Amino acid sequence: MAGAHHHGPPHDDGPAWTVRGSTQEEYPEFAAVFAEAIGMPAQELLDVERDFPSAEYDRSLVALDGERIVGTTMAYSLTLSVPGGPRRAAGITDVGVWPTHRRRGVLSALMRRQLADIRERGEKTAVLWSSEGGIYGRFGYGPAIQQFHATVQRAHAVLRPDAPRDRALTVELTDPGAVRGEIEELHRRAASLRNGQVLRKTGWWGQLLHDAERDRRGAGPLRAALVRGPDRAEGYALYRVLHKWEDGMPRGEVRAKEVVAAAPAARVALYEHLFSRDLATGTFLGNLAEDDILTTLLVNPRHLARTAFDSLWVRLVDLPGALAERSYATPLDTVLEVTDRFAPWNAGRWRLAADASGARAEATDAAPDLALDVSHLGSAYLGRGPLTALVDAGLATEHTPGAAARLDTAMHVPRAPLCDTDF
Ligand SMILES: CC(=O)SCCNC(=O)CCNC(=O)[C@H](O)C(C)(C)COP(=O)(O)OP(=O)(O)OC[C@H]1O[C@@H](n2cnc3c(N)ncnc32)[C@H](O)[C@@H]1OP(=O)(O)O
Fold this sequence. Notes:
Elements: E1 18-21, H1 27-38, H2 42-51, E2 60-65, E3 68-82, E4 85-97, H3 106-121, E5 125-129, E6 142-143, E7 146-153, E8 170-174, H4 180-193, H5 202-210, H6 213-216, E9 223-228, E10 233-242, E11 245-246, E12 249-250, E13 252-261, H7 264-275, E14 280-289, H8 293-297, E15 305-310, E16 312-316, H9 319-324, E17 332-339, E18 348-355, E19 358-363, E20 370-373, H10 374-380, H11 387-392, E21 397-398, H12 403-411
Helix pairs in contact: 1-2
The protein binds acetyl coenzyme *A.
Acetyl coenzyme *A binds near residues 11, 96 and 138.
């Protein structure tokens, strides 16, 4: 058995741990290691996977100590919206290291192998939601989206009188399973329009709408509010109501998991529906984009309590490929000197040129305008990573004055990215 006295190899000392592909047969052992690492019952993982399969076993990796699994990770084959359109991307998940084996380079070994595998498959980027902010920067991932959860007390949950309201829209309150097709279609449409969104797998929808008791955390069943227009569904909210009484007074809370709308009036109808549930003193809204119209439409936005957090992290796996497959707001011709510890094929100088006909990135010997880490480009990839801030912080170096600002301008997108699917 892997012993408590085993000290394991040092981090950067060659192929430290054996890493190999895993299988469906091995999944119970895989799940046991990952579950222990994140502190949830393994059986829960197995049940979810049995009922709502989404695992891609041929993309699962394990690290071994002797025969025993001590580290896990998996990748999903995703479609990610990036500036320029939807692109294939690897969605990294199930990262866990057995607690007695942490900080001995197990994850580092898994990451090296996984990046090589992704490159071989031809996906240009990898994305993930991180459990902690301190893990993935060193592996070349950069936080690319800031989004927020919000709470608004009933007294302040009032939208401007001139907010768009459409009498032709009706709100239907129902069990989400009854309108699943419409909900999925609305999300697919919205996801294709927002950078950072991923298309949800069937298993994820099943899990989301299944409404397991453990997901309720004291609140009632999951409800769908579906906005219907004359021709088609225009938006939906998925939410629960937590009914609570204190000293005989109603102190309930509406908890919205997501609000998705194809038009502003539908979004207004959904917010006003959520704000008007009786016996609730406030509304929680999860996963809003930085520029969500709620802030704009509240009569008094000061009382919207926002908790900002990093959602999606982006990693350029094939740097020239990733830079070439997105679009740029302004013409660009610049030379980047890039460091990359975990995907050495990206390290070096790249000339990035973009105009109306498209973008190219090619290896070059020319003098660099800007020197930075691959993780910095990951942060900027979805259009909101300020490279100038990295220069100001002394983490990136400008050799040509203004190079970072010019790249920021070219990579910028007007609408804030959002990812409302945590995988
Ligand atoms: C996409 C997802 O699945 S997110 C879920 C991530 N998983 C979890 O949070 C589960 C609990 N945590 C774990 O299982 C492990 O601690 C892991 C996976 C985060 C890290 O695995 P380890 O094998 O310990 O990482 P490894 O030894 O390769 O560390 C490499 C470097 O990263 C650093 N590092 C690792 N984890 C962290 C962390 N949580 N915070 C800060 N630094 C970290 C290490 O100190 C080390 O630095 P060094 O090279 O300067 O010494």
